Each structure stands twice: as structure tokens, then as C-alpha cells.
Amino acid sequence: MNRERRIxxxxxxxxEALAQDFITTVExxxxxxxxxxxxxxxxxxxxxxxRLLARSPYRERLAWEKLHVFFGDERFVxxxxxxxxxxxxxxxxxxxxxxxxxxxxxxxxxxxxxxAAARRYETHLLECFAGSPQLDWVLLGLGEDGHTxxxxxxxxxPPEAWVAAVASAPxxxxxxxxxxxxxxxxxxxxxxxxxxxxxxGIVARVFTRPELNLPAQRIxxxxxxxxxxxxxxxxGLVT
Length: 239
Ligand SMILES: O=C(O)[C@H](O)[C@@H](O)[C@H](O)[C@H](O)COP(=O)(O)O
What we know:
This protein is of the alpha/beta class.
């Protein structure tokens, strides 16, 4: 697995570079494959990146009909709830690009118990990937305790699970669905996007304290692991 860490002056520069690299990755992959599958991150950081992809010149360069969008995690709230990652992705990106509705795969958060919703999404993933969910590209955020997606310290999903239910996440809201280490580490490429001074402490710990075995440190995709940081978030690193 190749690793790379790129540091940019500010969040805008980091997201511009990520948008350009993402499009290059998609274009290269679609020379050989008929679709490109991604899992989007939640939280507040990625919205800037999603809004960029929804605008020129990036919007026109993506073959939206060949993109399939899944979610790395979801808060167990209705899809129109202010805390919904799906709602955030719709407002920042999906409602503004010509991606077919059938290509957007939100995690189910209505009409099911939390465990049943996890099982339903896992079944959907297995159907979409003919039994072995291998995403081409996953975007991940970084929480200040080292969590990523909804994989929090001290939470161990069943090793065979592709999707897990989280009943008491320390970051509200407490009930969540999340892809697991198995799914993220089966992916071809994973990208962390972390910006802002508030992340400097955890970014330093992730890169200098491997013994902590934090959730973000356990992400090891098949081909490539990339970090897109701004100077504020990487202030604790000796570069
Ligand atoms: O649903 C979520 O909350 C996210 O998946 C979560 O893992 C997020 O990426 C980090 O907590 C960073 O959040 P911010 O980007 O808001 O700092």
C-alpha cells in the first residue's frame, strides 16, 4: 500500500487539490472499468470538497452516470434531519450534479431498527459488489479522539461484518451506522481530509503515536492511503 501525506496552506487549497486528484483517479479508473464506486464521509469538513465537485470545472469532468455513491457512515436520523450525512451530501453535491438516483446509495435510517438497518445496508453492499464489497475510493474524516466514520475508540465491530450498528457513539448523535474496518481495508484507496487547528493534536498523535492503535490508524486500504491536510491541522508534525 502506497502512503502519501500532502499539506496545503488552507482548507480551500486542500480541497482544490483533492478535487483535481479525485477526478484524475476516476478518469484513469474508467479507462478500464465501467463504474467507479465511492463512499462519502460525513461531518463538517467534507462539505467544502463536495461543493467544489458540484461546480465548474470539476462538475463537467466527472462521468456522473458511471459513479456510484455510498456512505462511510450515517447518523441514525431521518434523511432530511439536520444531522444526516446524506442530507449534507445532497445539499452540497448530489442535488447539483447529474448523478442518476439509482447510483446514490444512502444508508437506511427509516422504518427499521438500528441492527436491521445495518443488516439491510450490508445486504445491499453484497448485492452491489457481487458478494465482496470493494469500493474504489473512500473519503474519511478524522475526529479529535481518533475516530473515523463512526468507528470510535473502544468499539470493535464483528470482524466478519461489512456494516455495523453503533448504539452509543461518544459524538452525538449516539446511534449510527458505519462501514467497518473490513470494508475500508478492502477498498482500493482511502483518503483522509483533515483541516483546521482543532485537528492538530490528533493529527500529530496519528502520525507519531502508532502504539495508540486509534481507529484512524487502523485504516489500511489495498492500494493507496492519502492524507490531505492544511497547515493548521499539521502544525504538530515535524515536516
Ligand atoms: O458522521 C460523522 O460524524 C463523521 O463520519 C465523522 O467521522 C467525522 O468525519 C469526524 O467526526 C470529523 O468531523 P468534522 O469533519 O465535523 O470535524
